[in-house]
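[job 4471] stage=fold_predict status=RUNNING
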Amino acid sequence: MKVSIHILSSFILFLILLPFLKSWAVIPFISAILIDIDHYFYYAFTRKKLNFKNSYIFFNELRKNSKKSGAGILYILCIFHTYEFLFLIAIFSLFSEVFVLITLGVAFHLILDYIDFLTTKANYRKSKMFLHYFKIHKEERL
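[job 4471] inference complete, writing structure tokens
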């Protein structure tokens, strides 16, 4: 999903939560956006390049080109988009109200990504579990 859509959707969530959470509503807003930093981590680790702009271009091109038919499905591992990460911050939520709000933002982001997954015909997928990513053949990894 495009960053602009995540920002706009997260801002709408912020506005909905604002009357109830007051200034604390900024935490789900920020966490719903910052979760995508794992795209940069993936790019930096797999491409051995520390360039945020090129990472952004890489994922935009991947998204655009992946809608072309004929290619097999490729998987990427964005660590903050995994069930394990969501489970971990949900556990932290048992001990901290701040983590409840972070979990809310992350879960909101993942729901948006899932909706995007259902509505696009992209041939790349974010692995939702570490085990899945490392279990699949290397040829299926991007």
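[job 4471] summary: The longest strand covers residues 74-76.
[job 4471] exit 0
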